[in-house]
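FAQ: What does the model actually see?

It sees only this:
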Amino acid sequence: MRPIQMVDTHSQYLAIKPEVDAAIHEVLDTAAYINGKAVQQFTQSLGEYLQVKHTIPCANGTDALQIAMMALGLQPGDEVITPSFTYIATTEVVALLKLTPVFVEVDPQTFCIDPVSVRKAITPKTKAIVPVHLYGHAAPMEEIMAIAKEFGLFVIEDNAQAIGCDYTFSDGTKKKTGTIGTIGATSFYPSKNLGAYGDGGAIFTNDDALAHQMKMIANHGQQKRYYHEVVGCNSRLDSIQAAVLNIKLKKLDQYNAARQAVAAFYNKAFANHPAITTPFVASYSTHVYHQYTLQLKGVDREGLVAYLAEHKIPSMIYYPVPGHKQDMFASFGLKEILLPVTDELTNSVISLPIHTEMNEEQLNYICTHVLNFINK
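And it is asked to produce this:
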């Protein structure tokens, strides 16, 4: 059996090696390493795939979130509502810009931001909501957008884990996650569903003025060289990464379907087990399974992790310490806030290997050992 990995980027590369190698060599031959033809092609193709008016490539997903918040003109002390159960980058940029993070609860089924908790957290200082499409499942955007409209708030979608996910509104309209809010942000970190061979990110909007502002901010605050209109940063997607992403974008739906097939295998193997809750999929969302995350009940999670490791099966716990309990936010005095669903999830979830190159032999092996440990 081929060794099991959480994400097998090498096997995925081997399947597209001739195309990737040729595209990289084309960049090397042209020597257009920054903002070359590949970047322009990828920017256009990604915008067409997502059906969004403006796509701004940048250096990574964290920069994408930061540039989005800078473009909205948020000021120190402004409050930004975000889930605590997410990767730290989502809220790290809030603190970096001297904004105030306001952590709220997530839905116990989808693990995405809870609109009821959002509404309760709104104050006169609230300026933005950052829903996270966690693990590949969409946040409840129709409700979030209604709340934002009611209170005059910006919505920044963190779509780093859910590119390609479809959201269906109550009237039947469908949109890709990342294109619904004021601004969407994503990451092309190598392990993502659409992953580069290094860092990369992008920002999306249908607002012309915001797009103009974000392009300037990502380019040292200039639209004309050496004439800097606003304080910006240096955040670019390089041509080699864009060349790789151009190829992989054409296969994104295929890649997501492969992940969904893996999830379906797991779901069948663990169906109706009293100690295991498999990922929930809401009626409004597809699921592209950036992670396949189980919720365990009455199981020694650390023991399971160790047992799987002994049998050369990797697993991960995303995220063992929620944002509101991280030391980096100690000055905000957040550790005492009550988020019981978040706390429960941090103590009970475990993610199993899922990627585009998994085979049935590997999946049978993983499921057998998970069940062996839990049933013993």
